Fold this protein.
Amino acid sequence: MKILSIESSCDETAAAVVENGRGVLSSVVASQVEEHKLYGGVVPEIASRRHAEAINPVVTQALSEAGVTLSDIDAIAVTYAPGLIGALLVGVNFAKGLSLATGLPLVPVHHLRSHIASNYIAHKELKPPFLCLVVSGGHSHIVMVEDYTKMKVIGKTRDDAAGEAFDKAARTMGMPYPGGIMLDKVAENGNKDAFTLPRPKVNDAPYDFSFSGLKTAVINLIHNAKQKGNELPVADLSASFRWAVVDCLVTNFLKAAEDLGVNTLVTAGGVSANSLLRSRLTEECNKKGYKLYMPPKELCGDNAAMVGAQGYYEYLDNNLADMSLNATATLPIDFNRE
Ligand code: KG4
Ligand code: ZN
């Protein structure tokens, strides 16, 4: 079964053709990041306009790179939530138009579920159940993936997402948007023990995260150094901050795995490209004898191949939509459509 999939939840317009949930025939991503860099973050209005311009050529390219036409496609999958509403609407309306014109079934896909599904593309043997750490620019969740379309949230952030905290700390140090990637690189040359940062905990919720206090602590250190006219120890600050964020993620994730008795661990989302997160989890999982699956770095960020992967399993579960489908800015990952 071939699915044409579309993603436009944030600042990437993407389309892909995916076979049986695991085989990527094409995957095209048009990134707007260079334009948003000028403003230090994603400007929603600009994102929507660029999606509207890019969607037709991106979908056309995905079909042509896969060597197929719409008549070879069996279903159309689209990210419908969560994300920037104006951005999501471009993909959803385009997919609805295609579905109406071709009569092909329309499969709505949750963005975070699709991040999890990026692992099905990379690891053909991976099947639920497993425990997944979903860490992106907007979300930080520990999710029990009981089945392809059945999830349970075990823990989540009470304030900032991990990616958001990385981006804000990086921006305060003068790094361009999205700063998480650069902070990760700069941290490689720093001393993680140079600064002691807090490890915020949420009372009575051992699997939940809180990153805003940690972010404020590092921003205060940066402001203090700037006020004193000192040169910013950017590498040391980055290394200490990265160590603290990753420590919180790894500690809670492993505790949840141990308490739930799960020994297959998976990561997903943009922040799972973080090199320290990857190396620390690899080390800890080796020690404990857990199986660990992580998407390759090129599948960590937003793309449409992962939407086609999750779309396949949503289709098999009969989670289809009609022309009344709307985009939704916020939606829990464990929400099931009627
Ligand atoms: O999943 P994603 O591409 O988009 C959302 O759904 O939000 O995640 C983007 C986030 C950004 O905050 C970006 O800075 C962060 O992932 N990110 C990283 C790294 N690569 C991307 N954060 C830390 N280290 C990285 N290497
Ligand atoms: Zn994402």
Summary: The chain is about 45% helix and 20% strand. The first strand starts at residue 2 and ends at 7.
